[in-house]
Amino acid sequence: MELEDSLYPLLRELNLGIDSYEVFRDADWALLIGAKPRGPGMERADLLDINGKIFAEQGKALNAVASENVKVLVVGNPCNTNALICMKNAPRIPKKNFHALTRLDENRAKCQLALKAGVFYDNVSNVTIWGNHSTTQVPDFVNAKIHGKPVTEVIKDKKWLEEEFTETVQKRGGALIKKWGRSSAASTAVSIADAMKSLVTPTREGDWFSSAVYTEGNPYGIDNDLIFSMPCRSKGDGDYEIVPDLQINEWLATRIKKSEEELISERSCVAHLIGQDNGYCDLTEDTRLPGEQ
Ligand code: LMR
Description:
The chain is of the alpha+beta class.
């Protein structure tokens, strides 16, 4: 009712349903938002399994009925691994078309940098989120720019960048839940729209956006079979390429590795959902979604 009453200029028709084989029929875009939140006493492995089953089913349904070039953006957590599961269950759809949402983290990073530098957020560019949408994510201030200058030349407080900035972005989802009693909603919705716009609008010359995408053949040596957030640019045709040649200094490399290792562990936990044998699950206690403290 509220969607109808909002008179959105692009909204033509609403169809509600719970059968993914019906609602995904001929879809060009699928935004997979629903997932079960982790409850008290629930192991992360259980969460991966429960949500993984949802995304395996949705992958199968997309494979069966969606448009052959459907773009899939996974928001439900743990979104990187859910996107991997969905992709593996949809072999008809190009692997490149699967994304997990890290644009929310990019927007959060831009906001923090803008506040610290005392500039408006649209002067902040070239912000990459590397890795997992979890507290191991790496918001990259090394390659980011403010007014076209390296962030490190504008914000000279290296300790703030390495510690406070990084941690604030990594834990922003959790901070919101703590304050608000529920997950971020409005900023997530905005970032989903931003993520879609980034794929249907040419990326500004020299800039890029973050999206967690399939790693096969990636230029950064990240393990080949993951959904990992990286810098991307688009010609505006719905497709994208990973931007190569960002400077990866030792500080970034160590942290990117940690996020990669976390995603490799998550992949092992869901081996049974992605057609792989011999999976095992030994996720450590400090593996967290942004919303888990
Ligand atoms: C966020 O980053 O706000 C969410 O992913 C948090 C959550 O766990 O729902």
